[in-house]
Amino acid sequence: MTATATTEDRRAARTRRKAARSAARPVLPRFPSPARVLGYTLVVGVGLLYLLPFAIQLVTGFKTDPDAASHPLSLLPATPTTAAYQRLFGLSESAQGVPFLRWLSNSAFVAVVVTAGRVLFDSMAGYALARLRFRGRSVLFGFVLAVMAVPGVALLIPKFLVLNTFGIFDTYTAMIVPLLVDAAGIFIMKQFFESVPREVEEAARVDGAGVFRIFWSVVLPMARPALITLTILSFQGSWNEFTHFLVATQSGQYETLTTGLARFVSGGLGGGTQYPLKLAAALLSTLPVAALFFCFQRYFVNGANSGAVKE
Amino acid sequence: MSLRTTRSRGSAARGAPRSTGAPGEPDTPGATGTPPTARNRAPRAGRRGEGAWGWLFVSPMVIILGLFLVLPILMALWVSLLHWDGQSNPFGGQADFVGLDNYRALLTQDGLDRTLFATSLRNNAYYVLLTVPLQTLLALGLALIVNQKVLRARGALRTTFFFPSVTSSIAVSTVFLFLFQGSGAVNSLLSWIGVKGPNWFADPRGVLSLILGDLGIVDPEKPAGALANHSFMGLSWFEWLSGPSVAMCTIILLAVWTTSGTFMLIFLAALQDIPRELEEAAALEGVNRRQLLRYVTLPALRPVLFLVLTLGLISTWQVFDQVYVMGQGAPGNTTLTPAFLSYSSGFDNADFGQGSAIAFILLALILCLTVLQRWVLRERGERTGRKR
């Protein structure tokens, strides 16, 4: 009696395991082996196309100027040197017109403030649009959708006009305040808050919590995944922001990694080619976002796919 | 008003204490004799001032988007009707009001402005024509690769393909500047297979005209006949048809390389949404790989394919950062795009009226594409909805 039960159990477990395995298994049989070899070669080749530029960038940063010019493709520096990095960090004769540490601190400062502002303001607006009842809510949501459709590059001169009229052109205020809210972030937060069950808020309300209390201590802690996505996307966006800083500032003291590097690279300065220096600066400016990316990749994936839900 | 009434009644049904209102009451507000206000007050009592809170919560958004998005558009609309050099106050009446002259100079009047604008449109049109199909195809291919269940290291590959998308456009453009120098890495690679690469960033020759020249159909140095004699918006037919310049091609390659990762993820999400039963059923029918792709996978991807195409169409008309770093219009204005032209007419040539006018034409173009996208995607959604 017991014996049959165990065999049945075992059989059931086996079919379950089989089902689990078949879900991971491809529908069609494997490729014949020549095709498989060819396929892997192709895939590795494509992968190299995506990796090689970064590898070359990394290696060139440790080359001397003549070496970089004569052997652009070699993945081993002839005479390895950290001269480019030393110049960037001002350890040796500092590079002319490349106040890298200033760029770095400006970028970090602006990105941190903008990220904090976006996380707070986007989630507030997202919550209000998802849950609070007030006159004009649907009009405002339509406004957010419309704003998402307005292309940033068509606003270059318009933004300059406004900043100039307010007398804040070429200040940190001009760099930060216009970026504090972004429509896409509001949209993400609204979508999330709509998925939170209402019962939670109702319960808190019965307990006598006010609107702000409910938002701050009940709903917001539940929104952790959405908040992490928003934080990461905001940081990435403001760290990589270029056009806004380009029209909001003009003096060197406000240059960020993007505007500074762009001016340096696009040949505003002489100084020969200096490719090791340029590529080292570009590499360092990529690092923070790259580190975030490798730690929190799935949140970047969420962000990329939220473009698809936008409708 | 009626909207609010229904909403508060809805929430009352969801569990808030409900003291008034008889059960079985019709749902239309105001249909019975009871004054609606009396009915509303009770469910709303628990959330006094919710309207005020709502406005408080959205006020940062309203203020910032209003001041730095709506107001700029209105101001620029006014400035696009002025001849303003950026010095005086454009709203004080010192600048010349020129009406639609800025737009006329760009669209109808023969002259340098129109030639430049037409050139930028041509460059960007070729950029769109090449970038959108290439990046869509590449993204689809990458997604199909990464979705192969037999493949090892799929996660690592996905990371590799996606990584360029998250980096700064300026940093990546810097790398491409280095790779595509005259004696750079790409040309060294090409020399291995015996090809002498062009001097990428200094080559203003149109790719189409080069190909046609090699075939002996036209002489790129001295185009003759209808191509040279006819012109549209100040550019000869030959100039319109000569294709993207070699320099523009590097920007196209860069765009395809950086954006394919994002679109790959969108395709990948859609691929993973295809019901497994569908593929299994097809496998039982004995289809081969190509048939599975052709008759099962691709049809299932159609809505997403459309989304990716339109997203690409919208974003490629906005190319700016790469142009700023890699060409600034040079060589021979062949990397000039409307966005960059708008910027440079304002900030380099102090002609902010002209720059605003270009910005508005570009804005109108992109908004048209967005409206088209939303309209067609909604159509599709409805159609599939009806089918179910």
UniProtKB/TrEMBL annotation, chain A:
The keyword Transmembrane applies. This is Carbohydrate ABC transporter permease. It is found in: Cell membrane. The keyword Cell membrane applies. GO terms for cellular component: plasma membrane. Residues 104-296 form the ABC transmembrane type-1 domain. It is a multi-pass membrane protein. Residues 1-21 are annotated as: Disordered. CDD domains: TM_PBP2 (cd06261). GO terms for biological process: transmembrane transport. Belongs to the binding-protein-dependent transport system permease family. InterPro entries: MetI-like, MetI-like_sf. Keywords: Cell membrane, Membrane, Transmembrane, Transmembrane helix, Transport. The chain crosses the membrane at residues 37-56, 108-130, 139-160, 172-193, 214-235, 279-301.
Automatic annotation (TrEMBL), chain B:
Residues 121-373 form the ABC transmembrane type-1 domain. GO terms for cellular component: plasma membrane. The keyword Membrane applies. Residues 1-40 have a biased composition (Low complexity). It is found in: Cell membrane. This is Sugar ABC transporter permease. Gene3D superfamilies: MetI-like (1.10.3720.10). Residues 1-46 are annotated as: Disordered. The keyword Transferase does not apply. It is a multi-pass membrane protein. It comes from Streptomyces corynorhini. One of its GO terms (biological process) is transmembrane transport. It comes from the Bacteria. Keywords: Cell membrane, Membrane, Transmembrane, Transmembrane helix, Transport. Belongs to the binding-protein-dependent transport system permease family. InterPro entries: ABC_transporter_permease, MetI-like, MetI-like_sf. The chain crosses the membrane at residues 53-79, 125-147, 159-180, 245-271, 292-314, 357-377.
